[in-house]
Backbone:
């Protein structure tokens, strides 16, 4: 998905805040601080997506599904998500 398509998706789905809340489990008082379009570097190459920085976590979600091979040698695809808690003091 290109950047223009991503902006269209963000607008149609109600903004980065709404997408963040729908994609990741959020705490009741958690607030999204920033969202950045970026590439996540993986062992299989870069993955285009959005990096979310909230008051409680740092999270990444790919723009489109990523293909992978299962244990029984079938090709499937899934949205690539990474999430880690922020320890802010």
Residues:
């Amino acid at each position: 998905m290109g950047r223009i398509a991503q902006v269209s998706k963000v607008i149609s789905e109600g903004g980065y805040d709404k997408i963040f809340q729908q994609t990741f489990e959020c705490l009741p008082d958690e607030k999204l601080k920033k969202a950045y379009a970026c590439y996540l570097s993986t062992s299989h190459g870069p993955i285009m997506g959005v990096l979310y920085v909230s008051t409680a976590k740092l999270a990444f979600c790919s723009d489109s599904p990523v293909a992978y091979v299962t244990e029984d040698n079938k090709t499937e695809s899934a949205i690539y998500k990474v999430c880690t808690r922020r320890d802010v003091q």
User: Anything to note?
Assistant: The first strand starts at residue 32 and ends at 42. Residues 3-12 form the longest helix (10 residues).
